[in-house]
Amino acid sequence: MRRRRFIRWSFRKRLGTNQTTQIIANLRQNVNRAFYIRYSYAYVLAINETGLRMVFFKQQKGSPWINYFGEAESWVNEEENKRLNADNIERPNTKWTFIKFSSIEVKALLDNQPMLGTGPLPDWLRNLSHGRNMFSLDTFADNLCLWRCIAVHEGARPDRCTQAAKQLGKRFFQSAFVPRTSLDELDKVEAYLNKGKQLFEWVGIRVYEPECQHNGEIDKLKNIMTIGIYEVHAFLIKDITKLAKTYVCNNCRARFTQATPLQRHLKTCAQGRTIVDCPNEKVKAPLTAYERTFYDEGRASQLAISWLEKTSKSLGIHIHHAMCGHGGERWILGAPVDGYASRSETIFQYHGCRWHGCRRCFPDRNTKICHGKTREQLYIETVQRTQKLREAVVEWCDQVPVQGFNCGRYDLNLIKEHFAELLADTTGKVQVAKKANTTMFMKTNDFIFLDIINYAGPGTSYDTW
């Protein structure tokens, strides 16, 4: 006999209030398969002049497919709030007045898929069966749950294990009627399953329940079958080591694979409350990839910023620094410099007396003031850094730039075998930057080979360049 395809309910009393509770109660009582809802209602309008009354019907858009009742409750509550909103009452014109709601009709169209949570197992336990570590065999309301677990363990398909489970139960009880199997009879079930088998073929049943653990001789067996028990209902667990390592927060239902992350989570869990986190931090504009690479967000001295601004105004140029609004300080030789003028390729460094170890202002050279370093150490590092910058500037001035248009993709790749050998013979160190198959630049002590297309605007042609 074919199952019923839809169920319809009509509500005609107390329509001025939200009917979500009554609708969901009827769904929970009568529906055990996946479904979707068609919702409509009728209301009475009257003409102001003659008092004539008419009934108008409004059909709402159907719901999506619903797999558990929480989704249904949210959807129905939203539709009920729309219905009770006076602005949603449709009238032919302004001469009509709303009188009352006449009826509400709810139709649930059913599918063959079982409803999630309609079996004896709860939702949180049934959801674990979506993986490969557990089979949830609680769809049927009979006494074969234990024998289904055994049948699936022996190789039967989970969706076609009923016949094999019946045969196992009938042979064990030697009767056509299979009663509910108690946990006290598991030893007898093991003896029945292992009757006439060699020791290495024996099957052991382990119950996944804290107060009913079976240890001892069963642990010596290699062929162990684990069965979980929830309110005298059994389900088969394929991998207990993976399934048991799941820790759930009681407040927000967050899941963790270890106990330590759960303990850290409990300190910050909202526990159902809405928390607004205001860190009281300055909001900065996002940086481009170029700015993140060449500019730093370091802590700059106010004296250094003031000196750079005065120098910028006196020279009539723009000097990039930490507060100029163009991304921060420029990185050169692995460290940021205080100021940098891009057009003139000039470096500006502000050596404050305190942080750079001035010998005249601070005669005491052994006092540690920064990162465990003394003033003398900071002074020596400042001198070495300045010398490296000067050498880098001299090296840059001595380098001969060789520019090419789109040469990083074609020219350099074409001659790279012979070109690399020649560079290796004439120089000791070659720096190459690549992006996928494109060579960005090649730099030696005497030459730097640049692909100008990396620095030109989008769509720049060879003729325009």
Can you put this structure into words, describing what you see?
The chain is an alpha+beta fold. The chain folds into four domains: 6-114, 2-Layer Sandwich (Dna Ligase, domain 1); 123-244, Cathepsin B, Chain A (Alpha-Beta Complex), CATH 3.90.70; 289-389, no CATH class; 400-454, no CATH class. The chain has helices at residues 20-30, 69-84, 123-126, 145-153, 162-173, 186-193, 240-243, 259-268, 289-294, 302-315, 375-398, 411-426, and strands at residues 6-11, 33-47, 53-59, 96-114, 134-135, 204-208, 224-230, 233-237, 247-248, 255-256, 295-296, 329-332, 335-336, 339-341, 346-348, 368-370, 373-374, 400-404, 431-435, 438-443, 447-451. The strands form seven sheets. It has a four-stranded antiparallel beta sheet with strand order 1-4-2-3. Helix 1 packs antiparallel against helix 2 (69-84) and helix 4 crosses helix 5 (162-173). Mean pLDDT is 76; it is low at 209-221.
